[in-house]
Design a protein that fits this description.
The complex is a heterodimer of chains A (78) and B (152). Helices cover 21% and strands 24% of the residues of chain A. Chain A has 78 residues and is an alpha+beta fold. Chain A has one domain: Roll (Ubiquitin-like (UB roll)). A 5-stranded mixed β-sheet of chain A has the order 2-1-5-3-4. Chain B is an alpha+beta fold and 152 residues long. Helix content of chain B is 34%, strand content 38%. Chain B has 4 helices and 10 strands, in the order E-H-E-E-E-E-H-E-E-E-H-E-E-H. Chain B has a 4-stranded mixed β-sheet with strand order 1-6-8-2, with helices on both faces. Chain B has a 4-stranded antiparallel β-sheet with strand order 7-5-9-10, with no helix packed on it. In chain B, strands 3-4 form a two-stranded antiparallel sheet. The longest helix of chain B has 18 residues. The chains are: A alpha+beta (78), B alpha+beta (152). At the A-B interface, helix 1 of A face helix 3, strand 9 and strand 10 of B.
Chain lengths: 78, 152
């Protein structure tokens, strides 16, 4: 699965990674797996949001196979 | 069109934006505008560039949601918001926010509201870059307090 990161998460991890998922999972499960893979990167922050196909999605959302996911650091505002 | 929202990468010319807002506001009695500029000094000293990352969909959506709310809340005829993204040098304009209304109070309030909401809720990630390195910026307590003034 392709995961894009925005904001300071792009600094601490990368702008884009290919992440192997063992099985279909929810957004929350993906976030937990990413947090284990990149401890201390800031993924556990409750203000971090996930976006799929241009829409913010909650932790309960099942990730469609093959769909890219964007993980958004807390926004700075304009 | 009552609302104009735009992202700009290379350049933002506040004078041109103000002219455009005025010319599209026939019948209005007041135009109020705000221009935000990149500061030469940050918390860690000299700033060589303010860099704003944006999202290809969510950033403009967030700006439109804010301007739509301003149109609903205030008796304004037109709103114009233009925001830079990418690397912005000190002294350059980051944002133009303007409102036109029949009477001045609504335009003042709408411009104030637009900036308070943009400062906290617009989908940007910004950092200062300078000789001391880079520093990511989040809204301050004062920014959140300013936004919360409108929560009623």
């Amino acid at each position: 699965m392709t995961v894009h990161f925005f904001g300071k998460l792009a600094d601490s991890i990368s702008r884009r990674i290919d992440f192997d998922l063992a099985a279909p999972c929810t957004v929350g499960e993906l976030r937990a797996q990413l947090d284990r893979a990149f401890p201390g990167a800031g993924l556990a922050d409750q203000r971090v949001r996930a976006c799929v196909a241009g829409a913010i999605v909650g932790d309960d959302t099942l990730l469609p196979p093959g769909e890219a996911v964007e993980i958004l650091a807390p926004v700075s505002g304009g | 069109m009552r609302c104009s929202v735009r992202l700009e990468h290379e350049r933002l010319d506040p004078e041109r934006e103000l002219r455009e807002l005025i010319s599209s506001s026939l019948g209005a009695g007041a135009v109020v505008s705000f221009v935000g500029l990149a500061r030469p000094l940050g918390e860690q000293g000299a700033v060589e560039a303010l860099v704003l990352d944006h999202h290809p969909v969510l950033t403009e959506q967030s700006m439109s949601a804010i301007t739509d709310e301003a149109l609903d809340r205030f008796e304004v005829r037109h709103i114009r918001v233009v925001h830079r993204y990418g690397a912005i040098a000190p002294g350059e304009a980051i944002v133009f926010a303007g409102a036109a209304s029949e009477h001045r109070r609504a335009a003042f309030e709408a411009a104030d509201f637009l900036m308070d909401r943009l400062k906290t809720d617009a989908v940007f990630w910004k950092r200062e870059e300078g000789p001391e390195g880079r520093r990511w910026i989040e809204p301050s307590d004062a920014d959140y307090a300013a936004r919360d003034r409108w929560e009623s």
